[in-house]
Amino acid sequence: DAGVIQSPRHEVTEMGQEVTLRCKPISGHNSLFWYRQTMMRGLELLIYFNNNVPIDDSGMPEDRFSAKMPNASFSTLKIQPSEPRDSAVYFCASSLGGARRGAFFGQGTRLTVV
Amino acid sequence: GESVGLHLPTLSVQEGDNSIINCAYSNSASDYFIWYKQESGKGPQFIIDIRSNMDKRQGQRVTVLLNKTVKHLSLQIAATQPGDSAVYFCAERSGNTPLVFGKGTRLSVIA
């Protein structure tokens, strides 16, 4: 199994631009999580999906952030417009059994907004 | 996926010694706990988990201990190796809520 696959690994963009992060969960997993990691705040859950349905998006910072999961094998996290304070490493994770089980993480996307 | 906090607690251990990494949690309703390892430039990697109906669980070279009375979790690594150098996170959840991660501890293995 290839594990959770995220793309791109690195993204540098200018303030105001739209950014789209992509994730392919582990095949067969029915839950998908988006996390953000920063030096100051550590790992924060942004949103998670169960069977492609968003369950809890209370961690999404503001309306500039949106996430979709059109099918069981693909999810996107979009930031529009991006701001320098969005600079962080964004992780996607997946699990079998919802939020009750351990999640397996991708390698992350390092986003830098200048 | 490198650093987690400006002031991460750091544990320095001699190669071959045992390591003990501690984690305190505040939610007495937490019923599931996981330890993750995060190496520089990588995502957190699942190490071992434990449910609240247990107080000890062993894996390969790792043991997790849970003390619900004082809300304390520890990860013991036997015969620590250079490859164990990383940031270690505990994570907890209660009921159907998603995992909540601690700030992490940096383990540095001295060869």
Short description:
The complex is a heterodimer of chains A (114) and B (111). By secondary structure, chain A is mainly β. In chain A, 0% of the residues lie in helices and 54% in strands.
Characterization of this structure:
The complex is a heterodimer of chains A (114) and B (111). By secondary structure, chain A is mainly β. Helices cover 0% and strands 54% of the residues of chain A. In chain A, a hairpin with a 2-residue loop joins strand 5 and strand 6 (53-56). Chain A is globular, with a radius of gyration of 13 Å. Chain B is globular and about 40 Å long. The two termini of chain B are 24 Å apart. Chain B is mostly beta strands. The model of chain B is unreliable at 1-6 (pLDDT under 50). Classes of the chains: A mainly beta (114), B mainly beta (111). The A-B interface holds A 4, 33, 37, 39-40, 42-43, 45, 48, 56, 89, 91, 93, 98-100, 102-108, 110 and B 1-6, 32, 34, 36, 41-46, 49, 89, 93, 96-104.
Question: Describe the biggest sheet of chain B?
Answer: 6 strands, mixed
Low-confidence stretches of chain B: 1-6
Structural class of chain A: mainly beta
N-to-C order of helices and strands of chain B: EEEEEEEEEE
Quaternary class: heterodimer
Whole-number mean pLDDT of chain A: 93
Distance between the termini of chain A: 36 Å
Beta-strand content bin of chain A: over 45%
The poorly predicted ranges of chain A are: none
The gross shape of chain B turns out to be globular
What structural class is derived from the secondary structure elements of chain B? Answer: mainly beta
Helix and strand pattern of chain A: EEEEEEEEEEE
User: Would you count the extended β strands of chain A for me?
Assistant: 11
The helical percent of chain A reads: under 10%
Radius of gyration of chain A: 13 Å
**Separation, N- and C-terminal Cα atoms of chain B:** 24 Å
Query: Could you tell me the radius of gyration of chain B in angstroms?
Result: 13 Å
The count of helical stretches of chain B stands at 0
Largest beta-sheet details of chain A: 7 strands, mixed
Specify the overall morphology of chain A: globular
